[in-house]
Amino acid sequence: MSLRVLAVASECFPMVKTGGLADVVGALPGALAGEGIGVTTLLPGYPAVLAALQATETARDWPDFFGGPARLLRGQAAGLDLLVLDAPHLFARPGNPYLGPDGRDWADNPIRFAALGAAAATAAEGFDALHAHDWQAGLAGAYLRLNLRGAMPLVFTIHNLAFQGQYPAGLFPRLGLPAAAFTVEGVEYFGEVGFLKSGLFYADRITTVSPTYAAEIRTTQGGMGLDGLLRSRGAMVSGILNGLDTAEWDPAADPHLAARFSAANPAPRAANKAALQARFGLAEQAGAPLFLFVGRLAWQKGIDLVLDALPALLAEGGQLAILGTGDRALEARCLEAAAAHPGRVGTVIGFDEGLARLGYGGADAVLVPSRFEPCGLAQLCALRYGAPPVVARVGGLADTVIDANEAALAAGAATGVQFAPPSAEALAAALHRMAALYRDAPGWARMQRNALQADVSWARSAGRYAALFRSLIHG
């Protein structure tokens, strides 16, 4: 590879995953390899990561690293080149990488991810650029610029601005950064330590995961307190869409499906629909439009809008399958909806990758009514598996789904339905539109075929990332 990039992130599929960040971190190295850029990924040494690591060697030892011994391991896992921060006092904890058994954040999360940032700054020696992902890697730039005086190009990618890693000022003396760093021209953020703010301040380029989201976060409404800083960075901020690993997400080869299918032969989807109805306790009705919601049961994701718009869905003869976990009150509402409408609404609380894939391969349409969405992967999976999505017109949802308006229908280009604003009333209207499209069998088949043929791969976006790295490294 002509250029070498060190990526640093807190999770990576398939070793550890809580959301779309892991999918992106796991898929981007393969996509960039085709552009002549080699990526090594630095991860925390969670038990699952260490268990997967092969052909290891120790790259560095620290007798005392943020409160305990640590070492940097080099190896491979799942086809990825990895560096792993093996620090048992920080990461030797099973389960969720951020939450303890009580469901609360680990109290030492700021120290755990400060250590990750410091390790990234040290490990970056010998690479051409450093690529940090989200707040957990936000201090990498501070350690690189202030402790090592490094001029290495730094790209920082925002996957969700809502998660900022903000901690009390009392943390600062434990970070090992110079005192001058605790100012507005550094890591200080409204009197506290801001991990995400640090990443934005020290980066040479800031990317986020869709062009529309890049514009939204530079507004007062969407910037969540950081819009001023983001506006001040001007052209240094850009949006590059996420993609899918289309070999990993392939309905023609997916073992989780009851029947595999393709754009050339979508008929087997009917068997997946029947299997999905059975798994969710829904009536086996081939002609009922089956809608799927899969994801976090949270305000951001708009599951409450789905429940509020449920009468419209049921009035159209539709069925609803809900798969996810999150806010306990919203979980309870989903279970109550299933109990109130047996055979019409089914809810599974939890996350099941195989069931999610069956859902994408069997549902007629996927609901993604997020109030804000940096990029979203659910709608990309839905397109890839031939389930035209119903999406709020925000962030990456607006950038990836072609609304079935009159012009798009006339041109034969529609891949789903968009609605705005993100409200129950607007979603209900979108559900009525989608049901009418479903009843038009030839038109529906055309929209489903468009979805299956949509390019949701990393091809174009990998080229944009490669161009960005080359401009920084050679410029």
TrEMBL record:
Domain Glycosyl transferase family, chain residue ranges per copy: 279-434
Entry's EC annotation: 2.4.1.21
GO cellular component, one term: cytosol
Amino acids binding ADP-alpha-D-glucose: 17
One example of a Gene Ontology biological process annotation: glycogen biosynthetic process
UniProt xrefs under InterPro entries: Glyco_trans_1, GS/SS, Starch_synth_cat_dom
Keywords in alphabetical order: Glycogen biosynthesis, Glycosyltransferase, Transferase
Domain Starch synthase catalytic: 4-231
Family: Belongs to the glycosyltransferase 1 family. Bacterial/plant glycogen synthase subfamily.
Name the record gives this protein: Glycogen synthase
Organism of this sequence: Belnapia rosea
Lineage of origin: Bacteria, Pseudomonadati, Pseudomonadota, Alphaproteobacteria, Acetobacterales
Protein's gene: glgA
